[in-house]
Amino acid sequence: MSDNAQIPSELIARTMEFSRAGTLAETPLDALKIIRSDVLSGPQHSIYEPSVCFIVQGAKDVTVGQKVYQCEPGLFFASSANLPVVGRVTRATSAKPYLALILRLDSAIIYEIASATDFRKPDDLGSAGVFLDDAKNAMTDAYLRLMRSLGRQSDIEILAPLILKEITYYLMQSRFSGVLYDLAVQGSGVLRISRSIEKLRRDFSESVRVESLARIADMSPSAFYQHFKQLTGLSPIQFQKQLRLQEGRKLLATETEDITSVAYSVGYESPSQFSRDYSRLFGLAPSRDIKNLRQQLESAAQDLSEPIESLAIQ
């Protein structure tokens, strides 16, 4: 799909207006954030919450487990659970940066729409926790109207909630609607696995047995393992390892250079094993990777400070 396919120029302009280069920017609407990158970027590791990512400009590859999703304009990427992902911006320039609207999913709205439309869950399409699908013209128009609503407080309070519900309605018309429906239904596999994911995220540094996670999800260990891997693309141990390594990377980049103490603090018993796993996941040894990360952070901070300094001079 060509760049900016089916995306109105006004939507690009309004998205740019609320974006900030190289960061995930807040908007006046709590459920909506904007991500922007003016340059191509290497692997970026993060945790996606239940949300839908609508690509406005540029392109990005998102890897979940072993599967790669190519996100381009005219497509939307949805996640129904808190999942570790790896993102690579593959198309972006300063003139045409990568832009995406990140909308947090509301399970109450999903359930309300499913109930009001006499929803029939489609056949199982693999039950993965993420999917990529085409954004129809009606959905694109709804996003444009949502961005327009950000200009007035009364529109944010009155129109925006209606448009959010409309966008959710269009999501529920997609062939993957069953994945979203499970997010809203008590007792569904998605919600039960999500409880165990929250346990892993909260206590990632602790030793956790699959049997105890299965009890949290109210499943047998074998069923839990199967459903967990189907939803996340990772085994519970692989999932926990990624959480530990991501937290370790954050600590090394922002708080301390002591690799040994960080390894112990995130739950590793062996600093050398931490370094080996770190290198496999992030592609560089901790010391080299953190040096690069800190240079990037310093460069980004300098870029953000320049407009402020120029304003002060004026």
Q: Give the terminus-to-terminus CA distance.
A: 44 Å
What is the spatial order of strands in the main beta sheet?
1-2-9-4-7-10
| Poorly predicted tracts of residues | 304-314
The average pLDDT is 86
Taken as a percent bin, the fraction of beta residues is: 15-25%
- Helix-strand pattern: HEEEEEEEEEHEHHHHHHHHHH
Number of strands: 10
Structural classification = alpha+beta
- Level of helix content? 40-55%
Please work out how many helical segments DSSP would assign: 12
Largest sheet: 6 strands, antiparallel
Provide a compact summary of the structure.
The chain is an alpha+beta fold and 314 residues long. Helix content is 50%, strand content 19%.
What do these coordinates show?
By secondary structure, this protein is α+β, with helices and mostly antiparallel strands. A hairpin with a 5-residue loop joins strand 1 (23-26) and strand 2. It is globular, with a radius of gyration of 21 Å. Residues 304-314 have low confidence and may be disordered. It contains 12 helices and 10 strands. The strands form 2 sheets. It has a 6-stranded antiparallel β-sheet. The longest helix is centred in the last third of the chain and has 28 residues, at 286-313. It has helices at 9-17, 107-116, 137-149, 153-171, 177-184, 189-202, 210-216, 221-232, 236-254, 259-265, 271-282, 286-313; strands spanning 23-26, 32-37, 44-48, 51-57, 59-64, 67-71, 75-79, 83-91, 98-104, 130-134. Helix 2 crosses helix 5 and helix 10 (259-265) packs across helix 11.
